[in-house]
Design brief:
The chain contains 4 helices and 7 strands; from the N terminus they run H-H-H-H-E-E-E-E-E-E-E. The protein is of the alpha+beta class. The protein has 2 domains: 55 residues, no CATH class; 116 residues, Immunoglobulin-like (Sandwich). The strands form 2 sheets. It has a 4-stranded antiparallel beta sheet with strand order 3-2-5-6, with no helix packed on it. A 3-stranded mixed beta sheet has the order 4-1-7, with no helix packed on it. Strand 5 and strand 6 form a beta hairpin.
Length: 215
């Protein structure tokens, strides 16, 4: 009987009433069988420790697929600080997301002059409309980049995108179903897995690119 009750130290704290068995007094104070309470509390503690350990391990491991994709982007270009002008042509939402840890974007991409040019173009209007009719418009910056933040635009997919500059109008052939990074599908080199970079001028012989306002 004594093997199943708390230690003597615990008994001193709990106290002993004369005329009542020690185990009965312990069970009365704890509200259940002493050995049951101890076992229950131990299980709770073990569960909490296990959960904490798993959380630490998951946080340390991260997502190896995502981490590898970020590593493949390479280092920053020297002289170009992190900001709206950095990493043109790369999949922005890869880093600008909950998984990436940077301030999230709903959409982001880079617009180039034409399919054969690696020169980005500024001042191009980017128009997005989602399946519920919500619209968002912005303009490309000096790196050709454009950004839509969740606070500005939270779309209901699919979405349709068009570009405009002066009399030049370019519309995406197919809708976007879930990917917020244009470069996830529009990257170089063009091939079976990529449509090539996003561009404004389809036929340079009849369409004219706007004059850049950036120096």
């Amino acid at each position: 009987m004594l093997a199943s009750i708390p230690s003597l130290a615990a008994c001193k704290v709990i106290g002993v009433r004369r005329g009542t068995s020690l185990r009965a007094q312990v069970e009365d104070r704890l509200g259940c069988g002493a050995h049951v309470c101890v076992r229950t509390e131990f299980r709770k503690l073990r569960a909490l420790l296990t959960l904490a350990l798993l959380s630490a391990l998951l946080g340390a491991c991260g997502d190896p697929v995502h981490d590898r994709a970020v590593d493949e982007l390479g280092p920053e270009v020297p002289g170009v600080p992190k900001g709206p002008l950095h990493r043109p042509g790369q999949p922005c939402v890869l880093c600008h997301s909950a998984a990436g840890g940077d301030p999230p974007f709903s959409f982001a991409g880079t617009v180039y002059i034409n399919a054969a040019s690696a020169t980005p173009i500024d001042g191009v209007e980017v128009h997005i409309v989602d399946s519920s009719g919500k619209k968002f418009s912005t303009v490309t910056n000096c790196a050709g980049n454009f950004i839509a933040r969740p606070s500005e635009y939270s779309p209901d997919f699919p979405c349709w995108v068009s570009l405009r500059s002066g009399t030049v109008f370019r519309e995406m052939d197919s809708p976007i179903y879930r990917e917020g990074s244009c470069a996830a599908c529009h990257s170089e080199p063009r091939g079976p897995s990529s449509a090539g970079h996003v561009f404004l001028i389809d036929d340079p012989t009849i369409e004219q690119a706007p004059v850049s306002q950036c120096h």
